[in-house]
Amino acid sequence: FILGTGSSQPSKYRNVSAIFIDLFSRGSLLLDCGEGTLGQLKRRYGLDGADEAVRKLRCIWISHIHADHHTGLARILALRSKLLEGVTHEPVIVVGPRPLKRFLDAYQRLEDLDMEFLDCRSTTATSWASLESGGEAEGSLFTQGSPMQSVFKRSDISMDNSSVLLCLKNLKKVLSEIGLNDLISFPVVHCPQAYGVVIKAAERVNSVGEQILGWKMVYSGDSRPCPETVEASRDATILIHEATFEDALIEEALAKNHSTTKEAIDVGSAAYVYRIVLTHFSQRYPKIPVIDESHMHNTCIAFDLMSINMADLHVLPKVLPYFKTLFRDEMVEDEDADDVAMDDLKEEAL
């Protein structure tokens, strides 16, 4: 479920980033958790259904520390702790950039969040390989030559290596229990300590005894197009990529380290992705962003509360014409100067 598809701040039609992966009886994951995520769960599932969705959460992954990607997190964690009070359960594992731990530690002085924290760079491919070989679980923050490498090289937040190893083993156990083989973070070009993530499902046997290959999902977080995303997305079943700006606003995309719609599609095409889902649109596009339909043969535009079943991926590109017909009178909403200035100030502050 795509709970939020907007950038920067909530608007009338778009909440900010959150993706809920429902694995049914096995549990669920949340990728990013902007403000209002709990409200979106309530809109999607109802009050009781939202409580059940929160109870089922086993892992929450946060891409970077901009407010529109994590400020709904503490509310979700506190509610889960309350709902499971007196019930035997394991803490939820929060995977995020290291500075996020400072925010969560401060909040825990007010309310129990009942969670384990794991740095995103401890879940890179290098770190997972190190765990398997019995080494230290600490990967490089950025690959050599990354444009962001010189911006952030170390952290002043200490992390005990033995606790990192234990939490990484706990995450491996959780993934196995919910039917996943991998959760791998990779660095992207946006801000210091910004990541994307690869999630791979395990193979399974269907009701008639046939072996079903596991799907592979990639989420870019906020990012410029970069080789790390292309490599991580190689032959993925689905790539959910940010597409903040229309193609004509390439200079603004470059200035703010975001992607245009065509750039996002090009990333998926270069990686031979089966289906591309575009999200994280500027709030200047209230319902459907400005797009070039000639590039949309394997691509879909996400909208808030959109439900995607892996079995229905083949029909995703066919949905766009119906959206355009439904919203033809509201394709672009002009922002007045004050709104644009406020958005620019907020981006600079973040």
From TrEMBL:
Domain of life: Eukaryota
Annotated GO MF terms: 3'-tRNA processing endoribonuclease activity; metal ion binding
Catalysed reaction equations from the record: Endonucleolytic cleavage of RNA, removing extra 3' nucleotides from tRNA precursor, generating 3' termini of tRNAs. A 3'-hydroxy group is left at the tRNA terminus and a 5'-phosphoryl group is left at the trailer molecule
The protein's enzyme class: hydrolase
EC numbers for this chain: 3.1.26.11
InterPro entries attached to this UniProt entry: RibonucZ/Hydroxyglut_hydro, RNZ2-like
Keywords assigned: Endonuclease, Hydrolase, Metal-binding, Nuclease, tRNA processing, Zinc
Pfam families: Anti-Pycsar_Apyc1
SUPFAM superfamilies linked to this entry: Metallo-hydrolase/oxidoreductase
Cofactor(s) needed: Zn(2+)
Family the UniProt entry places it in: Belongs to the RNase Z family.
PANTHER family: TRNASE Z TRZ3, MITOCHONDRIAL (PTHR12553:SF74), ZINC PHOSPHODIESTERASE ELAC PROTEIN 2 (PTHR12553)
Protein name: ribonuclease Z
Species this protein is from: Arabidopsis thaliana (Mouse-ear cress)
